[in-house]
C-alpha cells in the first residue's frame, strides 16, 4: 500500500444497501412481528366537515378477536393532546389543536375517528364496519379564495378565521433592495400572471406503519419515518413522556420525499394504546388510507408581477401567494411556502422584491413538505415568468435569462432576498446543456413546423434554476422562528481490529448514505471501503441527529462525518508519536498511515487502534480511545444550480404531450458518488415532470378526494416517462470542506417549469400563455381551442373506476 | 380451506380462510416478507411473484387459487449464494433506491425477459407498466433489464427461471391475477 491509492470520493461505487434489498431480506416496519403483537385499524371520516353526534362502538367490541375499540375521548378524555407544529411562522399564527382522533368535529375526509385493536389485522379491519358514527354536516370549506371570502364558513369556528398566517418579506423594508411598487410604476414593461400549483400526493411506495413495544426496557417505536430523532423528542413533548424512556427506530424505510417528515396521530395512538394494553401494537395503513390521511404537498395560488425595461433588464418582482394548509398544521407545514420566499428571485439580479404569503385553512388533508418544499413552487413561478416576459419582449428566453443572471465572476453574491450564494457558474452549465440539446436545430424545426401548420407542434422549455438546500444554518432557522436547529451529528468508532463504525444522525430511506459515508470515511481514515459500517436510524445507537430532508444529508451530515474523522486522526496522532518516539509535528497522515517525515517509518491507523484498545502503553493523560464525535452546524445553505431543457411535441388535434428530449446539466458541486447523484437526478426529474403532466389530488365539492387510489392518481409508470440526458458541471461549494451541495430535490425543483414552458411554447401561436397543471390532453386541447387555461375539467380524471373502494377508510364514495 | 403450495422450493400445507390473499399468506403465514404490499388496487405491482412461472400480482390472487402450484418469490431467486442475473443487473445499474418496489420489479422483469429475451427500451417500459417506482424515474431499471437480457443469453439464469419450450412467444397471460401486463 502506498499513499497514492485512488480516492474513494468521486468513484461510482455500487451501493452497499442493495444486497438486502434485491434479495428480499428487508426490514420494513410492517415486516416486524413481536410476541403477543396486536393490530390496529383506524376508522376514518367519510365526510369533510361535520359534528360528531355519537360514536357507537359496542357492536365492534363484540367482534371476534377484538381486544378494544377507542375513540378520541377514550384516548384523551381531557382533550389536551395536540399534534405538534414546529414552525410558528409569525407570532400571531393561528394554530388549531389536532387531536389524535377527531373529538367533537371532523375537519377533513380521512381524519381518524376511532381505532380497533384486534388479534389480527384482518379482524381489526372487519370490526371497523361495525362502528356506527352519526355525523351532523357542517359547511365544507374548499378552495383558497372561497375560504378567504368575507362570509365564508369556518373550518375552525373557535379561530374566528380561515386565515392561518400572513408572512411578508419586502426588500425595501429589509434594506436589501428597492421598493417594488416604485419599480412597477416606473417599468417599461409589466407582466402579471396567476399560476396554480396543484395539490400533489408524495406517494412514497411503502405505506406508513408503526410498531410500539411497551415490554422493552425503553418504550420502543419502529416507524416508517424520515425523522426518528425528531419523532423521539416530539413524542416525549406531545405526551409528556420522559424522553430517555423512549427509543425510536426507523428500520428500512421505503421512500419519503418529505411525506414521512411528520409526527403522526397514528404514532401517538400506538404509544398510548401499547402502554394502555401492555402489549406490542402494530398499525399499517392501506394505500387508500395513505392517500387521504398522509399529508399532501404544494397547493398554492401564485400571483406574480414582474417589472422590466424594454431591453429585458428585470427591475422588480412582486409575489403574492395563497397556500392551502388543509384542515390542520403539519409538523413544518406553515413554513413550507416560506422556504420559497428566498427562491423567487432565483439566479437573477432583481433590484426590488416583495413577497407575501397567506396561509389558509380548508376542509382538506393537511399539506406539508413534499420534495423541494416551497422551492419547486418558487422556481416554477419565476421560470414561467421569465418565459412570459421573453414572449412579451419578443426576446429569446435564454437570452433574457442570461441578461439577468448572476455572472460567474460575481460570486459570492448576496441576493435581494438576503441569501449569499457562495458559488455557481450558470454560463458553463447552460453552454453544456445547449450543446447536448441541440438548441438551435430544435428552434429551426419549431419554425418549420409552425410554417407548415404541422398538427404536431414543437415547443422548447427552459428552466435555469438554483435552490437553497442543505438545511440549514441554525441561526437562519432561528430567525425564521423554526422550532429547532439545523446541525447534524456523526461519530466514529475505531474497532480493535481496525474496522470502523460510523454513526450518523442522518436517516436514509433510499438515498444511499451507507455507501457514500463509507466512501468519505475510507478517504479520510485511509481504510478500505469494505471496512466501514454505517449505523443510522436507531436512537439507541445513533443517539443524536436531525434526520433527512431538505437535501441536507451530505452537505450537513456528511460534513459532520468528516469532522469526526479529523478528531480521530488528531487522537491517533498523539499515540502514533508515542509509539514511534517522535514529535507529533514530525508526523504526516496519509493513506491510513502516520509517517515520520523524511523517513520510511510509519504506523497504520489499524495498529494504533489495537494499541489503544490494549492501552498498555499510552502517553500520559491520553484516554484509551480513538472514538470521536462531531456536531456540524453549516455556515450557509448550499446552492446547487443547473440548466434544464425540454422539447415537447404537442399533438394539436388530441392535446397529447410527448416529451421528445430532456437534457439537464446540473451543478451540485463536488460529487461523492456519481452513480447515486445520477439516480437522484432521474428520480427528481420524474417527480417534477409528473407534476407538470400527470398528478393532481382532486377534491369534489363535498370534500371527497376523488383521486384517492393509484387507479385515479396518475403516478407515472415507466411507459409514461422518457429517458433523460443528464450531465454535470462542477463548481465546488466554498462553505464546506468537501465542496458538496445537495442533490436530492434539484431534479424535482427544476423540471416542472421546463416541461410547462415547453408545452406553452409549442402552442403560444394559438394565443395560449398558460395551461394549468397537470397538462392533461383535455386541458391542452381546450387551451388550443379556447385559450382557457383550466378548461376541460380536473386534470386527474378518475381512471380506473376503483375510486369507490374502501369507504371505511374515507375512500371516495 | 386446506391448501398445499410450494413456495421457493419448500412445500407447505395450511388451513386458510377462503378470502386470504396470496400476498398475505406469503407474508403472514410463511414469513416471506420480502414480498411487499404497496397499494390496494392492484396498480403498484410491489407484490409481484411467479405462480407456476408466470408473474402475478399476489394481492390479486387468493391463496386458495395457488393450491397445487409453485410460487417463486424474490427470496427464492438466488441459488447457492448466486444472485439471479436480473438481481445482479439491478445492483450493477443502480436500478433501486429505497428498494420497496424492487422485489416486484425484479419478478416482473424476469417474466418480461421470458416473453422477450431481447427487449428494446420501449418494450421494457411497456412491459413494466404495471409496476410503479417513485425513486428511480425508471431509467436505470430499463437499463438493468436490458443488461440482464444480455447476461442471460442463453442459459445464464437459474434453471427454475429459464424459458423452456419453443412456444414462449405465444404464451398467454396468466389466468389469475393482474400479472403479465
From TrEMBL, chain A:
InterPro entries, sorted: Ald_Oxase/Xan_DH_a/b (IPR000674), Ald_Oxase/Xan_DH_a/b_sf (IPR036856), Ald_Oxase/xanthine_DH-like (IPR016208), AldOxase/xan_DH_MoCoBD1 (IPR008274), AldOxase/xan_DH_MoCoBD2 (IPR046867), AldOxase/xan_DH_Mopterin-bd_sf (IPR037165)
Sequence segments annotated as region (Disordered): 789-813
Biased composition (Gly residues): 790-803
This protein's UniProt keywords: Molybdenum, Oxidoreductase
Pfam families on file: Ald_Xan_dh_C, MoCoBD_1, MoCoBD_2
Domain (Aldehyde oxidase/xanthine dehydrogenase a/b hammerhead): residue spans on this chain: 23-139
The protein, known as: Xanthine dehydrogenase family protein molybdopterin-binding subunit
Species per Swiss-Prot/TrEMBL record: Prauserella endophytica
UniProtKB/TrEMBL annotation, chain B:
Listed Pfam families: Fer2, Fer2_2
Xref: PROSITE patterns: 2FE2S_FER_2 (PS51085)
Gene3D superfamilies reported in the protein's UniProt record: 3.10.20.30, [2Fe-2S]-binding domain
Region (Disordered): 151-181
SUPFAM superfamilies: 2Fe-2S ferredoxin-like, CO dehydrogenase ISP C-domain like
CDD domains reported for this sequence: fer2
Presence of the UniProt keyword Oxidoreductase in the record: yes
Record domain 2Fe-2S ferredoxin-type: where: 1-77
Keywords: 2Fe-2S, Iron, Iron-sulfur, Metal-binding, Oxidoreductase
Protein's name according to its UniProt entry: (2Fe-2S)-binding protein
Organism: Prauserella endophytica
Source lineage: Bacteria, Bacillati, Actinomycetota, Actinomycetes, Pseudonocardiales
Amino acid at each position: 500500500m502506498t499513499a497514492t491509492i485512488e480516492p474513494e470520493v468521486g468513484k461510482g461505487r455500487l451501493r452497499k444497501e442493495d444486497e438486502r434489498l434485491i434479495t428480499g431480506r428487508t426490514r420494513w416496519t410492517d415486516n416486524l412481528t413481536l410476541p403477543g403483537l396486536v393490530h390496529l385499524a383506524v376508522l376514518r371520516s367519510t365526510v369533510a366537515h361535520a359534528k360528531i353526534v355519537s360514536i357507537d362502538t359496542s357492536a365492534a367490541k363484540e367482534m371476534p378477536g377484538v381486544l378494544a375499540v377507542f375513540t378520541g375521548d377514550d384516548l384523551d378524555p381531557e382533550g389536551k393532546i395536540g399534534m405538534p407544529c414546529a414552525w410558528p411562522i409569525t407570532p400571531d399564527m393561528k394554530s388549531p389543536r389536532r387531536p389524535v382522533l377527531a373529538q367533537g368535529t371532523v375537519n377533513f375526509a380521512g381524519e381518524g375517528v376511532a381505532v380497533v385493536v384486534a388479534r389480527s389485522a384482518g379482524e381489526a379491519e372487519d370490526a371497523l364496519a361495525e362502528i356506527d358514527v352519526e355525523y351532523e354536516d357542517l359547511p365544507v370549506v374548499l378552495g383558497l379564495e372561497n375560504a378567504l371570502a368575507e362570509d365564508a364558513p369556518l373550518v375552525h369556528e373557535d379561530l374566528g378565521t380561515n386565515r392561518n398566517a400572513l408572512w411578508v418579506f419586502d426588500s425595501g423594508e429589509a434594506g436589501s433592495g428597492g421598493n417594488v411598487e416604485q419599480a412597477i410604476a416606473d417599468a417599461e414593461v409589466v407582466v402579471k400572471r396567476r399560476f396554480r400549483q396543484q395539490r400533489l400526493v408524495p406517494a412514497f411506495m411503502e405505506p406508513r406503519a408503526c410498531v410500539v413495544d411497551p415490554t422493552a426496557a425503553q418504550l420502543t417505536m419502529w416507524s416508517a419515518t424520515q425523522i426518528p430523532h425528531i419523532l423521539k423528542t416530539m413524542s416525549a413533548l406531545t405526551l409528556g413522556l420522559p424522553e430517555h424512556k423512549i427509543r425510536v427506530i426507523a428500520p428500512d424505510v421505503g421512500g419519503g420525499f418529505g411525506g414521512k417528515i411528520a409526527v403522526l396521530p397514528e404514532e401517538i395512538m400506538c404509544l398510548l394504546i401499547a402502554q394502555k394494553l401492555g402489549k406490542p401494537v402494530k398499525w399499517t395503513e392501506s394505500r387508500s388510507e395513505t392517500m387521504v390521511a398522509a399529508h399532501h404537498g404544494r397547493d398554492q395560488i401564485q400571483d406574480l408581477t414582474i417589472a422590466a425595461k424594454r431591453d429585458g433588464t428585470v427591475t422588480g418582482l412582486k409575489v403574492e401567494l395563497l397556500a392551502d394548509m388543509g384542515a390542520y398544521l403539519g409538523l413544518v407545514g406553515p413554513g413550507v411556502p416560506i422556504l420559497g420566499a428566498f427562491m423567487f428571485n432565483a439566479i437573477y439580479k432583481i433590484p426590488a422584491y416583495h413577497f407575501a404569503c397567506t396561509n389558509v385553512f380548508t376542509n382538506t388533508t393537511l399539506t406539508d413538505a413534499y420534495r423541494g418544499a416551497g422551492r419547486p413552487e418558487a422556481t416554477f413561478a419565476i421560470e414561467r415568468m421569465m418565459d412570459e416576459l421573453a414572449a412579451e419582449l419578443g426576446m429569446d428566453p435564454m437570452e433574457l435569462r442570461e441578461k439577468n443572471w448572476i455572472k460567474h465572476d460575481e460570486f459570492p453574491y448576496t441576493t435581494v432576498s438576503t441569501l449569499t450564494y457562495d458559488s455557481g457558474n450558470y454560463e458553463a452549465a447552460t453552454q453544456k446543456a445547449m450543446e447536448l440539446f441541440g438548441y438551435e436545430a430544435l428552434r429551426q424545426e419549431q419554425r418549420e413546423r409552425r410554417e407548415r401548420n404541422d398538427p404536431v407542434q414543437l415547443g422548447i422549455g427552459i428552466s435555469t434554476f438554483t435552490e437553497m438546500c442543505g438545511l440549514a444554518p441554525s441561526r437562519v432557522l432561528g430567525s425564521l422562528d423554526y422550532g429547532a436547529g439545523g446541525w447534524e451529528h456523526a461519530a466514529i468508532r475505531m474497532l480493535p481490529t481496525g474496522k470502523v463504525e460510523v454513526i450518523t444522525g442522518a436517516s436514509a430511506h433510499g438515498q444511499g448514505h451507507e455507501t457514500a459515508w463509507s466512501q468519505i470515511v475510507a478517504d479520510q481514515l485511509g481504510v478500505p471501503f469494505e471496512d466501514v459500517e454505517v449505523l443510522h436510524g436507531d436512537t439507541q445507537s445513533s443517539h443524536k441527529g436531525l434526520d433527512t430532508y431538505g437535501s441536507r444529508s451530505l452537505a450537513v451530515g456528511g460534513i459532520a462525518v468528516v469532522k469526526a474523522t479529523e478528531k480521530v486522526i488528531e487522537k491517533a496522532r498523539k499515540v502514533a508519536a508515542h509509539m514511534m518516539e517522535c514529535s507529533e509535528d514530525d508526523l504526516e497522515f496519509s493513506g491510513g498511515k502516520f509517517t515520520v517525515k523524511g523517513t520510511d517509518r510509519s504506523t497504520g491507523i489499524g495498529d494504533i487502534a489495537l494499541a489503544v484498545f490494549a492501552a498498555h502503553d499510552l502517553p500520559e493523560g491520553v484516554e484509551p480511545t480513538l472514538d470521536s464525535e462531531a456536531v456540524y452546524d453549516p455556515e450557509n445553505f448550499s446552492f446547487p444550480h443547473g440548466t434544464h431543457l425540454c422539447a415537447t411535441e404537442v399533438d394539436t388535434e388530441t392535446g397529447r404531450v410527448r416529451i421528445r428530449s430532456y437534457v439537464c446539466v446540473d451543478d451540485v458541486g463536488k460529487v461523492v458518488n456519481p452513480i447515486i447523484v445520477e439516480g437522484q437526478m432521474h428520480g427528481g426529474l420524474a417527480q417534477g415532470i409528473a407534476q407538470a403532466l400527470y398528478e393532481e389530488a382532486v377534491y369534489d365539492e363535498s370534500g371527497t378526494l376523488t383521486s384517492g387510489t393509484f387507479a385515479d392518481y396518475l403516478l407515472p409508470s415507466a411507459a409514461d416517462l422518457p429517458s433523460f440526458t443528464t450531465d454535470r458541471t462542477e463548481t465546488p461549494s466554498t462553505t464546506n470542506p468537501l465542496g458538496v451541495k445537495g442533490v436530492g430535490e434539484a431534479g424535482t425543483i427544476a423540471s416542472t417549469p421546463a416541461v410547462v414552458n415547453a408545452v406553452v411554447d409549442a402552442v403560444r401561436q394559438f394565443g395560449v400563455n398558460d395551461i394549468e397543471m397537470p397538462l392533461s390532453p383535455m386541458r391542452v386541447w381546450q387551451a388550443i381551442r379556447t385559450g382557457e387555461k383550466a378548461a376541460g375539467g380536473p386534470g386527474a380524471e378518475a381512471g380506473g373506476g376503483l375510486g369507490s373502494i374502501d369507504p371505511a377508510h374515507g375512500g371516495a364514495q | 380451506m386446506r391448501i398445499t403450495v410450494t413456495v421457493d422450493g419448500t412445500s407447505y400445507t395450511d388451513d386458510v380462510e377462503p378470502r386470504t390473499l396470496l400476498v398475505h399468506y406469503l407474508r403472514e403465514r410463511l414469513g416471506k416478507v420480502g414480498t411487499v404490499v404497496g397499494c390496494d388496487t392492484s396498480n403498484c405491482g410491489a407484490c409481484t411473484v411467479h405462480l407456476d412461472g408466470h408473474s402475478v400480482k399476489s394481492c390479486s390472487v387468493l391463496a386458495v387459487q395457488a393450491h397445487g402450484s409453485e410460487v417463486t418469490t424474490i427470496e427464492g431467486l438466488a441459488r447457492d449464494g448466486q444472485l439471479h442475473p436480473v438481481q445482479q443487473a439491478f445492483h450493477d445499474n443502480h436500478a433501486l433506491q429505497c428498494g420497496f418496489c424492487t422485489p416486484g420489479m425484479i419478478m416482473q422483469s424476469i417474466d418480461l425477459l421470458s416473453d422477450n429475451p431481447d427487449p428494446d427500451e420501449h418494450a421494457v417500459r411497456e412491459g413494466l407498466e404495471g409496476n410503479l417506482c417513485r425513486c428511480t424515474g425508471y431509467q436505470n431499471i430499463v437499463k438493468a433489464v436490458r443488461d440482464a437480457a444480455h447476461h442471460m443469453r442463453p442459459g445464464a439464469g437459474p434453471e427454475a427461471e429459464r424459458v423452456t419450450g419453443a412456444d414462449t412467444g405465444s404464451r398467454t397471460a396468466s389466468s389469475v391475477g393482474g400479472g403479465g401486463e
